[in-house]
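Annotators were shown the component list below and the corresponding predicted structure, then asked to write short factual statements about the assembly.
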Amino acid sequence: MEKWGASLFGDPCGGCGFQWSLSPREAIGVVEGLPARFRGLLAGRTGFERHPDLGWTPAAYVSHVTDNLRNWAERLAGARLSGAVDVPGYDPDLVAQARHYNEIAPGAALWSLEHAVEAWAASVSAALDEGVVLRHATRGVQRAEDVARNNAHDGHHHAWDIERILRDTQPEVPPTRL
Ligand SMILES: [Zn+2]
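Structure shown to annotators:
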């Protein structure tokens, strides 16, 4: 069985400090705050900065969070609309490779994220109301509230990654307009 959530990252998360005790509604609030948070982090930066320990740029992390939200929103919708509760794992690195995350314009990545968050919040809210429970191929039972917390952590964690990238990188002049 694949480790996930607090058992994988620690509680609080050993990296970003995320606390897993938040309610599902609070988790939705975290995700709804991500577009403004990422936009703020990238303001005045190119979005293409690199960190020696990380393979992705700040804009690439935005694209990853977007695709992760879309994937899980779609799975919860599949359970709710079609009764498809058995879901496979997916490989985020293959998605990144296929979509060339590091070459996506930061403004476009942020635009995509805003739309993904809106759809995700609607899907997760409906799934919570209906008590959706997924059966994940490698993680086992994933309740809608587990998905809400996991996805909120993913966004929070990668905001921390972006902060790490930008901390050691000088802003370029003039800043790219997002
Ligand atoms: Zn974390």
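Statements collected:
1. The beta strands are 86-87, 133-136, 140-143.
2. The pocket of zinc ion is lined by residues 9, 13, 15-16, 18, 153, 157 (CB under 6 Å).
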